[in-house]
Structures are given as structure tokens and as C-alpha cells.
Amino acid sequence: MKKFVLLLLVIAIIGSTFADCSAASKPKKLPVLKVAIMPFLLSLPVKYMVDRGWDKENGFKIETILFSTGAPMNEALGAGLWDVATIGTAAVTTISVYNAKLIAETSDAAGGIELFARPDSPIAKVKGFNPTFPTLMGNPETVRGKTILMPIGTIVQLMALKWEEKIGVKDKEVNSVNMEYATAFQAFNSGQGDLVALNPPLSFMAHEKGWVSVCNLNDLKIPQYDNVLASSNAYEKKKNLLVKFVRLMYRANAELKKNPALEAKELSAWYKQNGQNVDEKLVKAEVASRPLLTAEDARKKPLGDAMKTTAEFMASIGKLQTDKLPIFDKNIVNDVLKAALRK
């Protein structure tokens, strides 16, 4: 009888030990951060950090949700489908309509935003009309009455309006035709219009065709950045994860930025993964002209100035109600960024 009791006791101890081992080996469920991304350079750092498991190393899990552009990304936020996003100028709507918070900026997006004329255009023969902006081409005589192909209500329209202003032309003195970038490129290539406003990689292709760059955002001193937005819910309930995310994003940016060959390789793979076969030369041009921001870069600049400029532009052309502008002062917040940048 004693032997039987002893046997039961041993079995119980062994069973308890295995149960404890099983519980210990069961992976801990990590908190999730849902990240909205696009198949472009602005989201490459997110892919880079997830591929290397940095999120899990830091006690959380990133779940990415891919969108083609910012518009469906905004609609998804309306349905509460993401916590944080990398997004471009569509952030104006995200902030003003969906109450998102601008918590960081990820890349300098001004590079490659350009206005082009044909080589034989009179516009391309005049340079330096405004001595304060000596690289700009064109003057009132060569520009009045001309037709610009571009997507209305985007950053390129802001560029075109500022260019017109600097060379002494009123917007009503030119014809603006609304076309998406790819359509505008093809139309201009077939002989339509006098000018075309493009973004990468189409702007790089325009250079290869010999089209003349009349102006760009950098010439006009218009800053433009890709943004990191948080939903109001995530900002209130997942702030610690947002801090970790921003810190890891700048870590990824630093690794990629210091090695342009690696960044180009990663970006090319990211494009291919999403069904885009972009020429290697164009990828390298994009990497060179649209630098990622590092933590050091973020420490040196105020957050959100470019976003406010874009919002004011949208209001000036009726794409944003003027009474929405104060929202940007409230929803551009720097507490997450400050925490992420602490050494």
C-alpha cells in the first residue's frame, strides 16, 4: 500500500513538472500594433524592422496592412482598422477629418517633385527671371496661356502655384488640367499640354527622356515630408508601443541611410514584392533624392511645419475648410517623438 501511495506521489510530481514546463514554454502573447503601409519608400523602414524581428525583440508585434494610396488608408482609419501609418500628403485628411495625430516624420519627400517642359519650349529658354529664385525657368511672357497637366489638389499643384507666383503669373492666366500622374505622363509624352507636374519614379523617367525641369519643391524652398500618424485611440491607449515603433523606425532609417546600396537593394525588393518592376537606376535615384530621416535629423527640426504649409494650401484651393486649420495645431503632438529620441 505504501509503495502504491509513493508511486502516485511520484506520478503527481512528474505531471506537475511537465505542466509547469508546458506553461513556461508557451509563448507569451505580445501586444499588437497595427501599422498601415504603402508599397513605396516611405514604408520601407517598417518592412525592414519587421523582417529583422525588432518588434518582437522589444516586446510587441507589428501587423502590417497594405494600402495602395493614402485615400483608402484614411477610409480604413474611419473603420478603426489601424493604429499607426506611414503616409504622405493624404495626412491632411487623416488629421482634419479622422482626428489622427502627427507623431513623427520618416523621410524627406521633396525630392523628385518637379514641373517639366519640353526642350524646345520657350519656357525652357528663360532662366533666372526672379533673382531670388535663380534656378526657376520661365517668365510671364513664356508662361501665360500655357497648359499644365497634373493631379489637382496634390503637392504638385502647390508647387505649380508657387512657381507661377515667383515668376509673376496669376493662376487664372494658365490652364490647369486634372490628370493622375501616370495619365499626365503619357499625355505629355504624346504631345498634349505645355507642362507636366510629376512625382517619382515618373519624374526620373522624365529626365531620361530629356524633358527640362522648370522647377522643383527644393528650388521653391517648400519642405515636404512623409509622415507617421497615430489613430486617436492608439495615441490614448498604446502610447508606449508608439514610442517603441518610432524609435525602431529611426534605427531602421539610420541603417539604411548610411548604406545607400543596401537601401536601394531593399527598396527594389520591396517594389518587386508588390508587383512593381522599377529600373535599378531609378531606384538609386529615388534613394539619393528622398533621404530617410534619422533620429539626429528629427532632433534638429520642428515637427509638422511642412504639414501646416500643406494644410494651408489645401484650404486656399477649397480642398479643406478653413475652420479645420486649428486642428493641426492640436493634432501635431511631439510627446511620442521626444520619448522616442531620448538617449
Protein model, in words:
It is a single chain. With 343 residues, the protein is of the alpha/beta class. It has 2 domains: 194 residues, 3-Layer(aba) Sandwich (D-Maltodextrin-Binding Protein, domain 2); 103 residues, 3-Layer(aba) Sandwich (D-Maltodextrin-Binding Protein, domain 2). The chain has 17 helices and 10 strands. It has a 5-stranded mixed sheet, sandwiched between helices. Helix 2 crosses helix 11, helix 4 packs parallel to helix 5 and helix 11 crosses helix 17. The longest helix is centred in the first third of the chain and has 24 residues. The protein is globular.
Return the average pLDDT rounded to an integer. 92
- Judged by helices, strands and strand pairing, the structural class is alpha/beta
What is the CATH C level class of the largest domain, in words? Answer: Alpha Beta
- Compute the number of structural domains: 2
User: What characterizes the major β-sheet?
Assistant: 5 strands, mixed
Distance between the termini: 67 Å
Poorly predicted runs of 5 or more residues: 1-14, 16-24
- Might you state the CATH topology name of the largest domain? D-Maltodextrin-Binding Protein, domain 2
Which outline best applies? globular
Number of H/I helices: 17
Helical content class:
40-55%
Give the strand content: 5-15%
CATH architecture of the largest domain: 3-Layer(aba) Sandwich
Radius of gyration, whole Å:
25 Å
SSE run? HEHHEHEHEEHEHEHEHEEHHHHHHHH
The number of distinct β-strands equals 10
- Arrangement of strands in the largest sheet: 2-1-3-10-4
CATH superfamily of the largest domain: Periplasmic binding protein-like II
